[in-house]
Amino acid sequence: MEQKNRTERIVLIALFSTLTWIGAYLRIEFIPPIPFTLQTLMVVMAGLILGPRDAFLSQGVYLLLGLSGVPVFTQGGGPGYILRPTFGFLLGFVLAAAAVGWLGRLMGKPSFGKCLGIALAGMGIIYLVAIPYIYLLNQLVLKTPVSFTQLTVGMVPFMLGDLLKSLVIAGVTPTILLRIRDL
């Protein structure tokens, strides 16, 4: 029985790493010309479904695959990706997945409102990592000073997209979680 649970965990971790990879390439131009990917949706779903440890591992595997050169990120992969402004989002994925998983464990019976709050918290954590990363990268490495306020305002269209993704997550997750618990 223990071997089966371990195998299931490994499969689910790999599945959500793969779904995040696929989500990087599923682009939707909700507010043209700004492309939205489904990565953040997969990150939050990983947290809600897998729990803190396995969600952390799923996004950690995703991050390590990309840094090792596997083209899992929206624009490829490799260690040089660390110097891209979007790398802060990828770091945020790992932290957000774990935090969402932890909050999901505290949720009790899943509902639209609870899942929406947790999804929004997860999205917020991603931005709390990404915006300072972009700011520091611009200041220290790229030597192109941009104010923190400008960066935050520039993220508003992406935040609107993540709000829509959070609504989708809140709409489907309670049913998924209840079905999983019934298995």
Q: Which structural category do the helix and sheet elements fall into?
A: mainly alpha
- Shape category: globular
Number of helices: 7
CATH topology group? Arp2/3 complex 21 kDa subunit ARPC3
pLDDT below 50 for ≥5 consecutive residues: which ranges? none
Proper CATH architecture = Orthogonal Bundle
Please report the total strand number as a whole number. Answer: 2
Average per-residue pLDDT, rounded, comes to: 93
Overall tally of domains: 1
Strand content is: under 5%
Terminus-to-terminus distance: 15 Å
CATH class: Mainly Alpha
Helix and strand succession? HEEHHHHHH
What is the CA-based Rg, rounded?
Answer: 16 Å
Helix content: over 70%
Q: Largest beta sheet, briefly?
A: 2 strands, antiparallel
Order of the strands making up the biggest sheet: 1-2
Characterise the protein shown here:
This protein has 183 residues and is mainly α. It has one domain (2-182): Orthogonal Bundle (Arp2/3 complex 21 kDa subunit ARPC3). 74% of the residues lie in helices and 5% in strands. The chain has helices at 2-25, 39-50, 52-67, 87-106, 112-141, 148-154, 156-182, and strands at 27-31, 34-37. It has a two-stranded antiparallel sheet. Helix 2 (39-50) packs parallel to helix 7 (156-182) and helix 5 (112-141) packs across helix 7 (156-182). It starts with a helix and ends with a helix. The model has no long low-confidence stretch (mean pLDDT 93).
